[in-house]
Amino acid sequence: MMNSSMMNDRLDAASHGKQPFESTGHSYDGIEEYDNRLPGWWKWLFIGSIVICPPYSAYYHFGTVGRSTIAGYEVALAANARLQFAEIGELTGDQPTIVKYMNEKSWLSFGKSIDQTNCISCHKADGSGLVGPTLTDDHYKNVKSIEDVYTVIANGAAGGAMPAWKTRLSSNEMVLAAAYASSLRGTPVPETAKPPEGALIPAWPTLEEIASRVRHDVAAHKTDAIVCDSPQSRWNDHEGALGFIDRWRLDQRCRW
């Protein structure tokens, strides 16, 4: 299309007896379309982009593994995860650990990022279910207690319909994903959510319930326990449930 500057140039050329821009022969509502040539720099830029494509593809897509932008991102993401995981050590998929991280918002957000990256194609972003079952009601097909959520993520289920993620995710990532998936239970979902599947199971235990049980177990076996020689390993019956479970996890690492 011809803008005002082009129109002025055309009128100026016509007034001096010069040949105006060539027309394409298209006219819309009295507006004529002219064949304006592309500037030279644009043409050379286009040619240059074509010339650089083969070596670019050979270097980044067919050369040494790890050169692509995606590979670089994955390396950076893994390095960042290692830095974060250094704060919490290696996690195990037991009941106290999963319930603990269900109650820590920052780590629950990390679990959500894992879920949103790997799980939404089957369970949807809100956990309401698509190919896989909904994660928001009280019915479960392969889960009887909360630690089974970790087991299903790690080992898969339903003959491979639910894939095993233990070869693709670290133990910490699976624990945090299990914590996030478990936290979706009881959340409101749209009417389009999948209907309940499987058996009705009891509610997840609370931190207080687990801490109470752990206190009982510690009291029963305290004389046999060999705990770490560190102030952090000293049991405190007056601390909160979350802190008490942290002490329990530390004690489990160096008890026997």
Name the features:
10 helices, two-stranded antiparallel sheet, two-stranded antiparallel ribbon, 5% strand, 4 domains, 4 strands, 50% helix, Cytochrome Bc1 Complex, Chain D, domain 2, 256 residues, mainly alpha
- Widest sheet, order of strands: 1-2
- Reading off the top of the CATH hierarchy, the class of the largest domain is best stated as Mainly Alpha
The low-confidence parts are 223-239
Question: Which topology of the largest domain does CATH recognise?
Answer: Cytochrome Bc1 Complex, Chain D, domain 2
Main sheet record: 2 strands, antiparallel
Mean pLDDT: 79
Specify the overall morphology: elongated
Number of beta-strand segments: 4
Helix content: 40-55%
Q: Give me the CATH architecture of the largest domain, please.
A: Orthogonal Bundle
How do the strands and helices of this protein lay out in sequence?
Layout: H1 4-15, E1 23-28, E2 31-34, H2 40-61, H3 69-85, H4 95-102, H5 105-118, H6 120-123, E3 139-140, H7 147-155, H8 171-183, E4 199-200, H9 207-221, H10 241-253
Antiparallel strand pairs: 1-2, 3-4
What's this entry about, in short?
This protein has 256 residues and is mostly helical.
Describe this structure in words.
With 256 residues, the protein is mainly alpha-helical. It folds into 4 domains: 4-34, no CATH class; 40-67, no CATH class; 95-205, Cytochrome Bc1 Complex, Chain D, domain 2 (Orthogonal Bundle); 213-253, no CATH class. The protein is built from 10 helices and 4 strands; from the N terminus they run αββαααααβααβαα. The strands form 2 sheets. A two-stranded antiparallel sheet has the order 1-2. Helix 4 packs across helix 8, helix 5 crosses helix 8 and helix 7 (147-155) crosses helix 8 (171-183). It is elongated, with a radius of gyration of 31 Å. The protein starts with a helix and ends with a helix.
